[in-house]
Amino acid sequence: MDPTFLEQLRRKVEAGETLSHPELDALRSAARDTPGPTLRLAVAHALVNAGAEREALPLLESLRRDFPQDVQVRLGLARALLGLERMGDGEAVLREALALNPGDPEALKVLAVLALRRGEHGRARAYVVEALERDPFDEEARLLKAELEAADVPPPPSPRARALRPEFTAALLAALHRAGVACRRQAGALLVKLASGEVGRVDVASLYADYRDGEGDLAAYVEALVAQLQGLSGSAGDARALEARLRPVLRPADFEAQAVGALHRPGPAGLEVFYVLEDAELLRYLPRAALGPAGLSAEAVDAVAWRNLEAHPAPVRPVVVDEGQVVLAESFSGLWAVAGGDGYDAARLLTAEQRERLVLHAGEVPLCVHLGRREFALVCRESDVPARESLARLGSAPDGISGLFRLGAGGLERL
Description:
Blueprint: H1 3-14, H2 21-32, H3 38-49, H4 53-66, H5 71-83, H6 87-100, H7 105-117, H8 121-134, H9 139-150, H10 165-178, E1 183-186, E2 189-193, E3 199-203, H11 204-213, H12 218-230, H13 239-245, E4 246-251, E5 264-266, E6 272-277, E7 284-285, H14 291-294, H15 298-310, E8 316-322, E9 325-328, E10 335-338, H16 345-348, H17 352-362, E11 367-370, E12 377-381, H18 385-394, E13 404-408, E14 411-414
């Protein structure tokens, strides 16, 4: 390729411009034929410029594996994560960049913006001061400093009175009854009959946590929630819309008593495979009664759900267990988290793409698996005795799956 043309493409990417399809293809071709991270990283930035952060993310993850000491790779990965609104993951990668290059001004400025958005003016000011110490003429840092100086920081808000969980549950039940929505308690959940005739399972603990951390008062929150529940009908009659939202999850053998009427089948290692409809707010198990109106069979639901999950693998992160808490590690630790954070990570261990990602980190060896937390799955090499003991001591959450498992060529088995 003409070096002048290639340099023009790089400058367009650096300026945040969107490349045409032929230009992007040319940049990809040059990246395949050129060693080092520079052109591959330019391809990733070009994808982010075009709003294709999800496509850029696997490329950036592979760059981090291939070039673990490259600060620019970390900054590119953070940019893609922040573009996907994964603020916590993006901030963690920015801190990795600072660990590699203390005082890196680009990482400091982005961290300052994130802190400013959260209202953490003191932390934002510290990041800006450090960036200006490195380069007193950095225009972006100076603008951030001016914005902080002009900000009218309000006094800390007075503590808000929040209802206790029994009061919250009682208010929710009363609002459902007033709206004519049939419901009943089941352990820590509510079974709600929707207008379509299907039954949704509502996790009261999750809803209460959302209310407790929010700003609205109790009455307004439960009325809005009831309105949302009433609007969650209709998907059972639209097979295409339903299929797009299907995901499989692994649950303990006795979970059927907590999700009465939900479609499920036997899974590996004595577990059960249930099916949920992806929803940002509510955990909804697919009722067996929804299959007829949607024109779907149980076999078709199973195939579609696993295909959907296969297309959305999760990142694999090194972690450590510190005083019973799982935290990200800055380097190799022998423990990894499959950390999609959406509740599907246990099932992801059974997908081909996720297994390939694990092989890149742990090698083609049997793994010891801990499924005690729904927000991630933990793995280590079966041969790593200290790591296995660490997982055994960790225990499980009430909604997790207890015990340890073996993941190998034969699939998932109990240890």
